[in-house]
Design brief:
42% of the residues lie in helices and 4% in strands. The protein has 6 helices and 2 strands.
Length: 137
């Protein structure tokens, strides 16, 4: 019983195949019309914001950021604070202070390191300027 059905299903019928080849479908989308909302606006999701902790650098950056985010000046400040005083500015304290997730703060502290400016002593500069460059032959 089931073997007969399987054979019938798997059997190719040339008549149906030729009819299928003759079928042509053409489809077109209707023109798009913009509906006038009549001044109605959907309510937007209100993000919870916090004031930034910039101190004397406040004029250089934004004053409010969404919770869970930091501004560029804040990022540089917290990275520098952690670099100078890692025992005080721990990842946990930074996360609490700036309303961030701990795993994001750990990633930030691991992968972003502020630059260090090194100033050479004057003696080294004199030694470099008094040295005559070698000529290449």
């Amino acid at each position: 019983d089931s073997s007969e059905i399987k054979e019938e299903v798997l059997k190719k019928d040339d008549r149906f195949l030729t009819l299928l080849k003759d079928v042509y479908v053409e489809s077109r989308d209707p023109p798009v019309q913009v509906k006038d909302g009549g001044g109605e606006h959907l309510p937007s999701k209100q993000e919870e914001k916090r004031l930034t902790k910039l101190g004397h650098l406040e004029a250089l950056d934004v004053t409010k950021v969404p919770k869970g985010k930091i501004s560029l000046v804040e990022a540089l400040t917290l990275l520098n604070n952690h670099k100078l005083q890692p025992q005080i500015w721990t990842a946990e304290k930074i996360a609490a202070e700036y309303s961030l997730e701990l795993k994001e703060v750990n990633s930030l502290l691991e992968f972003f390191i502020p630059f260090t400016v090194l100033e050479f002593p004057k003696e080294t500069k004199k030694a470099l300027t008094s040295h005559k460059p070698k000529q290449l032959t």
